[in-house]
Amino acid sequence: VAGFSGIHLAKEISVTTKSAAAAARSTVYGYPRQGQGRELKKAIEGYWKGRVTADALTATAAELRRSNWRELADAGIDEVPTGDFSYYDHVLDTTVLVGAIPERHRAAVAADALDGYFAMARGTQEVAPLEMTKWFDTNYHYLVPELGPDTVFTANPAKQTAELTEALELGHTPRPVLVGPVTYLLLAKPAPGVAADFDPLTLLDRLLPVYAEILAALKAAGAEWVQLDEPALVQDRTPAELNAAARAYRELGALTDRPKLLVASYFDRLGEALSVLAKAPVDGLALDFTESAAANLDDLAAVGGLPGKRLVAGVVNGRNIWVNNLEKSLSTLGTLLGLADRVDVAASSSLLHVPLDAALERDIDPQILRWLAFARQKTTEIVTLAKGLAQGTAAIEGELSANRAALASRATSPITRDPAVRARSEAVTDADARRSQPYGQRTVAQRERLGLPFLPTTTIGSFPQTDELRVARADLRAGRIDTAGYEDRIRAEIAEVISFQEKTGVDVLVHGEPERNDMVQYFAEQLTGYLALRHGWVQSYGTRYVRPPVLAGDISRPEPMTVRWTTHAQSLTDRPVKGMLTGPVTMLAWSFVRDDQPLADTARQVALALRDEVNDLEAAGTAVIQVDEPALRETLPLRAADHADYLAWATEAFRVTTGGVAPGTQIHTHMCYAEFGDIVQAIDDLDADVISLEAARSHMQVAHELAAHGYPREAGPGVWDIHSPRVPSAEEAARLLRTGLKAIPAERLWVNPDCGLKTRGWAETRASLENLVAAARTVRGEL
Ligand code: GLN
Ligand code: ZN
């Protein structure tokens, strides 16, 4: 153990510490699912289309599991995860595991397990799917369990035991990974028809015996250890919830016929739940020791460590894409050695959240490439750290010096240190983040300039992304057309979108965003300091994978990004055309962010780059500019204690983006999902003039939430649910508007759909927008 850099190791190392170090093993909790050639996605989508048989799909899946385990084992991982594989989502797998199939899906599941599984995930003509929502603060989405007082759980361990058996037969040391019972219940919601205040946690006593049965089955199938994931315990939990966790692990721990239990948490510090789990009669804990959960270290010491238990230390960040600081991790591991019986090394969470392999990124400058670590590189880091822990730093000297060089190159690179960007960012004043007049005065200037009727109509930005547009982009990539040819097609599309809106009588027009592949990537590609990945796919949900760009360095905008499209659109009409940008918080939320400076600093750099765009749009005559922030709410930290800090820098970034325009320029913002009740103050702090929100499905609930909090500005609660191809009738939209008017006075109410129209077809778009305009006219007539 000699040679540790950790100061904590200066003290004499006890015999137990030495053996804990010597026994250090490496593991991960999960691995990217789809395969290097996107095999799983292709096989599943082929199966849905009837082109791939069920047998072929299961064979592809088995082959992927096999190759993932082989890859991990070949890299030197001692204990491989099983059961982390999924055809769609591991929470849905847990629903199947515990037999909590919703009533409406039971027939389909009974008829065919695989088709029934996909029916729960995606719905069918007849039945709605399970609701989907974000997995903690990641961009992965899980299917929400639906439970009620009548829910009966039954153990269905076949998938788990089969995958365990596969791994055993291949000669691996597997550890099944399951969503733990407390997290499963805390992630659930009341089933349709069940009282909204039903608390799924009341089902714990019914669920535990089923977990007991599953654990016994896994033991019988040869599991020495089983991992139960309890990430819900890193969130703020009530005393009752903490008691439930204590009870759950007291009972599961007391079972005699069970494997050893490893309870895992990640994404944040465990806080109060740490002492609960430390006291529980389980055999090990897996904790996150990355920056954002660093408090776990002191908290663990404060509860007296984990005597007699195994500690799996998540020191390699499982959700960012940066190389680890190996020396720092070794120092943390060294400290931990004194706190548990055995210390193993892992990524902080499943590697599901990172792309597979940085080495595939051939377009990235090799100087930058060595700063990046995706799943394969992280696996190597884990193995290296375990070796260093077991054998001393001398055994990994080569890796340590390469790591030191990579970190130094990143820290001193002109890409991560652009003096001009830094100087500008430091010089930002309060005045920069403030419009020159308060909302109440600006609105007078805006009314005069825009001359809009009451209940003005507008849309959220995008119009249908047609096949022609996709073909045009493919043609450009393949060199079948040149940039000029491509841009002609974009301009033609804009002309069509403008003429349609004029004809329909929309008041504030948009250009339709036909030039954008994606609302974040489009800007990332044009900003200096951002990297695009070619193979950096990560699972968003099911077979949907995204390639988030990387905020790699200091951010600046070499030239205008959207101005020519907006001005082209404006040249075709006398009505105002709204400029359309993605806001700084959303740019961060849907990218891989830097880990070498506070998020607030990155947000401010992005904000300043976007501010230039806002100012250029204004200078080009744009009277209305929308800055979308759909991610403002979803990026809220997991712990309430961290909310104020986040909201302060997030709203400041928005105000820096928009603070430079004249009072007569109207700033809009847009957010999608509902549940804004707890951030109305933050929405107000954005100091936007108009906000559009999703509201059609909830019957304008957000309008009432805004009103209840005294929100003083203009707002457009959506009156057309764009997630469905259904065309809302004019009467229906008018009814929603009348409901909206009960919360927001006519001079502040806008009329718009819930969100952008890029996923809709032209036929529905035409009919729906005509109805929307008709509804606005009808209700105006009633004022
Ligand atoms: N302006 C974007 C659009 O209309 C907004 C999308 C979003 O909110 N997710 O597509
Ligand atoms: Zn939206």
TrEMBL record:
Q: Where is the active site?
A: 723
All residue ranges annotated as the Cobalamin-independent methionine synthase MetE C-terminal/archaeal domain in the record: 455-777
Group of enzyme by EC = transferase
Cobalamin-independent methionine synthase MetE N-terminal domain boundaries = 26-337
Q: How is the cofactor bound?
A: Binds 1 zinc ion per subunit.
Q: Tell me which residues bind L-methionine.
A: 460-462, 513, 628
UniProt keyword annotation of Transcription regulation present: no
> Under the GO molecular function aspect, what terms does this record hold?
5-methyltetrahydropteroyltriglutamate-homocysteine S-methyltransferase activity; zinc ion binding
Q: Does the keyword Acyltransferase apply?
A: no
Name the EC number(s): 2.1.1.14
Q: Which cofactor does it need?
A: Zn(2+)
CDD domains recorded: CIMS_C_terminal_like, CIMS_N_terminal_like
Q: Which GO terms describe its biological process?
A: methionine biosynthetic process; methylation
Where along the chain is L-homocysteine bound?
A: 460-462, 513, 628
Give a single Pfam family match: Meth_synt_2
The alphabetized UniProt keywords are:
Amino-acid biosynthesis, Metal-binding, Methionine biosynthesis, Methyltransferase, Plasmid, Repeat, Transferase, Zinc
Q: Where does 5-methyltetrahydropteroyltri-L-glutamate bind?
A: 38-41, 134, 590, 634
Q: Where is the signal peptide, in residue numbers?
A: none
Catalytic function, reaction form: 5-methyltetrahydropteroyltri-L-glutamate + L-homocysteine = tetrahydropteroyltri-L-glutamate + L-methionine
Q: Where does Zn(2+) bind?
A: 670, 672, 694, 755
What pathway is it annotated to? Amino-acid biosynthesis; L-methionine biosynthesis via de novo pathway; L-methionine from L-homocysteine (MetE route): step 1/1
Q: Which protein family is named in the record?
A: Belongs to the vitamin-B12 independent methionine synthase family.
The UniProt function text for this chain reads: Catalyzes the transfer of a methyl group from 5-methyltetrahydrofolate to homocysteine resulting in methionine formation.
PANTHER family according to UniProt: 5-METHYLTETRAHYDROPTEROYLTRIGLUTAMATE--HOMOCYSTEINE METHYLTRANSFERASE
Q: What is this protein called?
A: 5-methyltetrahydropteroyltriglutamate--homocysteine methyltransferase
Show the taxonomic lineage: Bacteria, Bacillati, Actinomycetota, Actinomycetes, Kitasatosporales
GN (gene name): metE
